[in-house]
Amino acid sequence: MKTSKRNHQLIHLFAVAVLLMVCQTGNAQIWKNTGKKIEKKIERKASQRIERKIDKAIDKGLDKVEETPGDIAKSEKEGKVKRNSGKPGQAHGGDSIEMNAKGTSADGQETQSAGLQRYSKFTFVPGEEIIAFDDFSQDAVGDLPASWVSTGTSEIVNFEGLEGNWVWFNKTKGNFVPEYLRDLPENFTLEFDLMYDFAFGTYSNARLLNLVFSDIANPEAKLDWEGTPGYFALQKLTDHYTGVEFSGVGHDGGPFITGRKVVSADASLNFSTKYKADQLINAESKNTPIHISIARMGRRLQVFANETKVLDMTNAFERDVKLTSARFYVLNSTDADNYYVSNIRYAIGKPDTRNKLLESGKFTTSAITFNTGSAEIRSESYGILKEIADALKSEPGKSVSIIGHTDSDGSDALNQQLSEKRAEAVRTTLEREFGVSNVMLAAGKGESDPVADNGSPSGKAQNRRVEFILQ
């Protein structure tokens, strides 16, 4: 009680000081009206700051309680990761890769804000309706991806110290066709995480992974197609083709990320454009995930690697071409050439965040993503957060409820806590990083309100969402 009384006295004195600075006048009425407003605002701000400190302390305690033995072992390894195969207790080649701790600075403080600021020029906004999400969690380590048709060799692996399963392409040559990348519309987004591990400084005839969009009549046909860079080879697949190639070779001036368009019916329309990717693909960055974000908007194709726009092809597709499928073509020449792919997210729907939120008063998105089991917002969420912030700032008098939802992995109680923490992380980010001053209330519903089946990775991805309700 004494502390509360003392705090109130300090707030009152501080309000007097603030008023003297903003109101150099002796008008009693101004003092009476403005003084009370300032005092109330300071009291509210002080209360909010105290609550945030309490929440932070509680979260710290909960994080410790929720930490699993695997998490503890992971942190004790200080970010060291190993690639594991399906053979128990073995790692391919015994590779051990040093990785920096993610999301923390040298003094142990969270660096989420710094990560988001890096993405300030990241204009990519994912499609709203998730058609497919594949993290290969349903595939056994050591097996081929069950939902892919392929001719080359690949297998599912995982890493100590790195989340999820990955498709591993080692020394191989072949086509890999995910069955869910079919009948692609005029507007869609495709995202995935890409890693590589090459013996830089040694010669390799080819270290390339090519993502191909085509109008081939039967997506499972021509699995013997050779997607090497020469136009003659490319024209053997179909009349219309657009590809994004990631090449790790250096003897041709690379590494490069290349966009290439082929129109077999009219060779004069063929072209390619290269982005020199030595800042992304280099010896120091191997086994570090690169988030690839691809957006098709009519004839236009944009490609981002992390926060960097690497390709923007305004005429990547011919008019009235119906894309029937996408495939990966991989050509690795030696045992030291390795690509890894995970977390494929295919979504449709042209984003219209502002109108949906302001006109309907409600907007739900799964494009705000978090690290697994964490409330740490992933940096590639910047684009959608900026759109939401712009919409809210255009209606500063309205309040908004931010509601977090999770999938069903884990216990009900932990998912409830996680959804609350994620909603609060979004609220805090909108306020601190984007300057949103609307009254924002954060809450969570855990796994209690699913919109899709939690029995599949795609359903889980749809259930991991954030809901915004204007009031």
UniProtKB/TrEMBL annotation:
Gene3D superfamilies according to UniProt: OmpA-like domain
Pfam families: OmpA
Compartment list: Cell outer membrane
A single cellular component GO annotation: cell outer membrane
Compositionally skewed regions (Polar residues) per UniProt: 102-112
PROSITE patterns named among the record's database cross-references: OMPA_2
Compositional bias of kind Basic and acidic residues: 65-81
InterPro entries: Bact_OuterMem_StrucFunc (IPR050330), OMP_bac (IPR006664), OmpA-like (IPR006665), OmpA-like_sf (IPR036737)
Keyword Membrane among UniProt keywords: yes
Region described as Disordered: spans on this chain: 65-112, 445-464
Leader sequence segment: 1-28
Entry keywords, A to Z: Cell outer membrane, Membrane, Signal
Keyword Zinc-finger: no
Domain OmpA-like: 357-471
Record-given protein name: OmpA-like domain-containing protein
Organism from which the protein derives: Parapedobacter pyrenivorans
